[in-house]
Amino acid sequence: MKEKQAKDAVVNHSRVGLHRDASSPVRWIMPHLNVEALARQIGEWLHEGTVSAHHPAHLLQFASVDHNTGPQLRTVVLRSSEPAAHWVRFHTDIRSPKVEEVRRQPRVALLGYDPNLRLQVRMDAIAAVHHKDSLAKQGWERTPPHSRASYASKRVPGEALKQDVVHHAHAPIHDLEDPAYNNYAVIHCAIEVIDLLELDSDGHRRGTLVRAGGEWCWQPVAP
Question: Which value, to the nearest 10 degrees, does the dihedral of the CA atoms of residues 139, 62, 119, 26 take?
Answer without folding.
Answer: 10
